[in-house]
Amino acid sequence: MLTTRTGIRTLTPADLPEFLDLVAEDPVVNVFVDYRARTTNLDRRWLGGEIWGRFVGGRMIAACHAGANLVPVQAGTDDVAAFAERALTARRTVSTIVGPSEPVDALWSLVAGEWGHPREVRRRQPHLELAGPPAVAPDPLVRRTERSDLEAVYPACVAMYTEEVGVSPEQGGGADLYRTRISQLIARGWQFARFEEGRVVFKAEVACSSPYAAQIQGVYVAPDRRGEGLASRGMAAVAEIVRAEIAPVVSLYVNEYNHPARRAYDRAGFVETARFSTVMF
């Protein structure tokens, strides 16, 4: 059903081609929603939420992923206002608002009064891309993880998540669910690590991918091994494998204040193409 005042309706599988055309206007920045659309066919049963489209003159001009993550897509000022209105009238399922800084900051300003205090707001996060060979020699010891690596890699995954997010993924009885998530990444060939004497000293994962790009998450170096160049060489290795076998461009976004990580990505050859913001509840 179309909301006439805002021109918004929930997308269905029939809208997939037009939605993918919209996403392709900035395909690397929009890789998360591209991945979600392709893997679910915009079917709400698999999305675990909805994707809203905003239409003007019968043409989709913007969209917004609305599930655990609220993610604006190609949204200008009027689009953001319309999506905020929709978000405030829908049942809230959102734990994170994330995406390009301008629409995310505007969206948050419009819903903040109703949604209360977030756990953290991270603005101006550099969005980085690598579309060619890395600038440093890849670490030859970085490889895809295998099922037999789960017990060794799982503690590093928990440590990375806890350090990055501020809470353990095992909190509230979430250990089994998080272990299943790591197992799925390994099964897909989406996790990479360097092991030394059975211990993970570097790791990274593919979070999502499309025909255009793959987004990296969960980059981690063991605390006692930081400052040795493991991250830059490790990311060079990950980028080479990903670009050869998964997607032509490798992307990620990083906290503005994380200067060691930013230096490592810069050395590996990543370049900034946008800024993201993240609001976490």
From TrEMBL:
Residues 140-281 form the N-acetyltransferase domain. GO terms for molecular function: acyltransferase activity, transferring groups other than amino-acyl groups. This is GNAT family N-acetyltransferase. The lineage of its organism: Bacteria, Bacillati, Actinomycetota, Actinomycetes, Propionibacteriales.
